[in-house]
C-alpha cells in the first residue's frame, strides 16, 4: 500500500494529545465539528449543549512540528435543556450545528443551534482591565457620592489573558420542527435555519422576525411524502441555496425569482435502477448531508451508502459516485433492526475540492481522490493513533480468506461511528469526531 503516500498527499498523523476522556456520559458525545474560515479555530458541540473552541498553536523556531496542534481556547454552555409547555415536549440541549461568521475584527462570532433555538456567540480576548473609577470601587460596589472629592482618569492595567464567550443574539420561536442545519450567507448579513418542513431566512441583527422562504408542509399531514434533511447557501452567490430531501433529491432555489422558493430552479435526482429496488431503497436514498464545493461549481451529497458529486449544470445524474461501504448492502436488514440505517453521516471537501471525506462504522473514515480515483480507509482509534505515527490504510474483508491486515465485516463495531468530520479550509488538517473523542490529524511532515 505504499502507493498511497505517492498518490494521496494526505496520510494524517495525530498530534501528541488526542482530546478525549476515558469514561464519558451521553452528554459528552460530540454532535458537530467546524473549522472557522482561516482554520485557526476549531469548534465542537456536544449533546450536553457545550461548545468547546480549540485554537491552533503558533509556530515556534524550537518546535516547528507543533504548528498543527490545537489546544482548548474557550469552553462555554451554549444551550440548556428546555420544556415546551404548550406541546408538553422536552427540548434537548444537544448542539446540532455550529457555523462560524467571517471575522470582521479581533473578536470571533459563531452561530450554534439545538432543535429549536439559534444563538449568536461572541468570543473575545481581554488582557487589560480598567482601574480608577470615580463612581464605584474596584470590586464594583457603588461609592457614596458625598465621599468623592476629586476627579480621576481611569487607566488600563495589564492582566492575565481571559477569553470570554458572550451571547449576543437569541433567534427563537420560529421553528415547529427540529432544526437540522444552519448556513451563513455570503452577504454576511443573513443566514438560514432549516427544519424538517421549513426554511427560514434571518437577518443577523434582527431576532424577533424571520422570513419563511421554503414551506413543504401540506394542508393534510397525511399527504406528507418527504422532509428536508439539509440546506446550504452558495459560497459566493447570496441569492442561491440548495436543500436536500429524504427522497434523495436536491433542489436549487433562487431567492430573486420569488419570495417563497417552493418552486425550484434546478432539480437534481438520480433515478433508481429497478433491479436494485428493495424494502430499504427509500431509507438508504435519503440524503443526510449536502455541501457546495468551495468553487461553487459542484455539489456533494451523502446518502447511506454513497457520496455523489453533482455538476450544477447537469441535473439528470451525478458526475461522480463513490461507494463508502458497499459491503453493508447484505446487512441492511440487521442495520434496520438496530436503527443504524438511520444514521446521518456528514461529508466534507478539502480546500481545493479535489478530495472528499466522509465517515463510516468501526471508527473508519473514507477519503476519495477525485483526480486519481483512488480511495483510502483510515481508522480513528486510540490504539493505533500514537503521536507522530502515520495512519495505516485499513481494508474490510467481505468474503473468502482474510489477510492479516484486513478486518472481517462480521467483526465491525457499529456502535463506533464517525458521523461528524471537518477539513481545514486551506491545509491538510482534519478533525474527526468519534463518539466523545476528537481526533485531529495533519499531513505528514518530513
TrEMBL record:
Belongs to the phosphatase 2A regulatory subunit B family. It comes from Ictalurus punctatus. The gene is ppp2r2bb. One of its GO terms (cellular component) is protein phosphatase type 2A complex. This is Serine/threonine-protein phosphatase 2A 55 kDa regulatory subunit B. Keywords: Repeat, WD repeat. PP2A consists of a common heterodimeric core enzyme, composed of a 36 kDa catalytic subunit (subunit C) and a 65 kDa constant regulatory subunit (PR65 or subunit A), that associates with a variety of regulatory subunits. It comes from the Eukaryota. GO terms for molecular function: protein phosphatase regulator activity.
